[in-house]
Amino acid sequence: MQENKNGKILSLIVLIFGVILMLLGSPFLISGISSSLPLLISGSFLLIIIGVFCSILAIKLKKRSLYMFFSVFFILYGLYLLLHTLNVIHTPFNKSWPIVSIFAGLALMPAGRHRYGHIRPVFMIPAASLIVLGAFLMIFALHLVPVSFKQFIIQWWPVIIFIAGIMLVLLSISGKKDEVSDKLE
């Protein structure tokens, strides 16, 4: 019993020490970067810190997958903004906006795993759909194909409706399997 209490105290001390180091290191990191946009850099660091705080909430509060989703999403988006501000990524946001859909899909995966303790299709199918949708829209946003998005939709709308139907059927079937496995457990 005493060992469990000591473990919780040690965990709390490590958490507090980690937050203090993050808060102390952030201004030094920002001041060390010679950029004319320190406000944008501090904004991306703020998103990353919010993401870390959300992950702490997700871990400390049992089964809080929403916090885990926001944690991963804010960290990914903060890193993207930081790389964009530092000119590592040269594509303007008006051409790379579908990356937000990809980040949402990537954030949904660990959120589902955190909630159930293992991978479930009820989270994986929407996550994969968001990633594929983001990648698909990115192709048109970056003008990697000679046809416009509007022309593609006009020509291929029956296939898009068919694929959307497949996704809904898979989601429905996987939801029923999850309900049956929950009843058996």
Short account of what is shown:
The chain is an all-alpha fold. It has helices at residues 2-32, 38-60, 65-85, 93-96, 99-116, 121-141, 149-184.
The separation of the N and C termini measures 29 Å
Q: How many strands, which pairing sense, and closed or not: the largest β-sheet?
A: none
Number of helices: 7
Instruction: Tell how many strands the DSSP assignment holds.
Output: 0
Radius of gyration: 21 Å
Arithmetic mean of pLDDT: 76
Percent of residues in beta strands?
Answer: under 5%
N to C succession of SSEs: HHHHHHH
Q: What does the overall shape look like?
A: flat
Task: Give start-end ranges of low-pLDDT stretches.
Answer: none
By helix and strand content, what is the structural category?
mainly alpha
* Fraction of residues in helix: over 70%
Describe the 3D structure.
The chain contains seven helices and no strands. The chain is an all-alpha fold and 185 residues long. Helix 2 runs antiparallel to helix 3 (65-85), helix 3 (65-85) packs antiparallel against helix 5 (99-116) and helix 5 packs antiparallel against helix 6 (121-141). The protein is flat, with a radius of gyration of 21 Å. The mean pLDDT is 76.
Primary descriptors:
185 residues; 7 helices; 83% helix
Topology summary:
Blueprint: H1 2-32, H2 38-60, H3 65-85, H4 93-96, H5 99-116, H6 121-141, H7 149-184
Helix pairs in contact: 1-2, 2-3, 3-5, 5-6, 6-7
